[in-house]
Amino acid sequence: MLKITSLEPAAGGVLLKLEGRLVGPWVPILRQVAENELSRDRGVAFDVSELSFVDRTGEELLRELIGRRVRLERPSGFVRELLSPNGGPR
What we know:
The chain is α/β, with parallel strands linked by helices.
């Protein structure tokens, strides 16, 4: 399960908190949420401090979104290692 909560708006953008597992059926849902926010031409940030697991498709989505200037705030050690240049499964 993945819970997505809108937090206090970031200056000129939106901050969404992700909690739980970014896996399987939740990946396209997060993609749609991100697309909706990015289409509003404002900054988008995800608080990922409460992500407990990310599967390969979730990792690919996060990497794609980072490339599109989505910021990941408060990454746990797990998420930081997963998305580091030398971390995570390939």
